[in-house]
Design brief:
Elements lengths: L1 H16 L9 E7 L15 E5 L2 E10 L17 E5 L4 H6 L3 E3 L7 E16 L11 E8 L5 E9 L9 E4 L8 E8 L10 E15 L6
Antiparallel strand pairs: 1-11, 2-3, 3-4, 3-5, 4-11, 5-10, 6-9, 6-11, 7-8, 7-10
């Protein structure tokens, strides 16, 4: 009886003395994606998919440079000229990669998660001949998902178009933390009046977010 009691005490002492692994620590780096080639990022090429830029995969987004290479100037100019990005049902990058999103899911990623704070946006009328044309009223909905696919946050923003040229609006996000993915959807407010074969494209610029990695990363 006493011998068994001593054995149990000894086992408990052994368990209590076993060192536990400390929780993982993450390095954090704030990013401001303006899609200009002077940033510390992979150089961008006009009319090509953005792909991985400043530690995030910009899935379904295409680089658009206004007034370069014969491209028509968009009715919603970039917040930080000359580059902006675009997505939509007629945008080649969206057709190739699917629903526009920001995500940490890509090959050889070192990013565990990201916090998403704000971005600039607008909507334009797109046809098969031009990726981005005149401003178009719309509602943009952003949905943040964690690594388990659970919705963390969702917000919608209205874009009003009353002229041939409109400035981008700033979307300030609340509660978009610990994300693996943020998806974007667009609803036109004028679908009944759109020309045949035309669609609404989302244009964006100056995405403000912070990424977290267990590996050291440099700004």
């Amino acid at each position: 009886m006493h011998h068994s009691f001593k054995v149990i005490l000894g086992a408990l002492a052994l368990v209590s003395s076993t060192p536990t692994s400390p929780p993982p620590t993450y390095s954090a780096i704030p990013q401001l994606a303006r899609f200009e080639n002077d940033q510390n990022a992979t150089p961008l090429v006009a009319a090509n998919p953005v792909n991985i830029y400043l530690d995030i995969f910009f899935k379904g987004w295409q680089v658009f440079t206004t007034g370069v290479g014969g491209a028509p100037a968009t009715g919603v100019p970039p917040q930080s000229p000359p580059n902006q990005i675009a997505s939509g049902p007629l945008t080649p990058a969206t057709l190739l990669q699917g629903t526009p999103a920001l995500t940490t899911v890509y090959q050889d990623t070192t990013i565990d998660r990201f916090d998403f704070f704000s971005f600039f946006y607008g909507c334009v009328l797109a046809t098969q001949e031009t990726v981005a044309g005149a401003p178009e009223p719309c509602t943009v909905t952003v949905t943040g998902l964690d690594k388990n696919g659970r919705q963390v946050a969702q917000q919608s923003f209205d874009f009003v178009a009353n002229a041939l040229s409109e400035q981008m609006n700033k979307a300030t996000l609340v509660g978009f933390t610990g994300l693996q993915t943020a998806t974007f959807s667009v609803t036109s407010k004028a679908l009944g009046t759109l020309p045949e074969n035309a669609r609404v494209a989302l244009v964006g610029d100056t995405f403000n977010y912070t990424v977290f990695s267990q590996n050291p990363i440099s700004p």
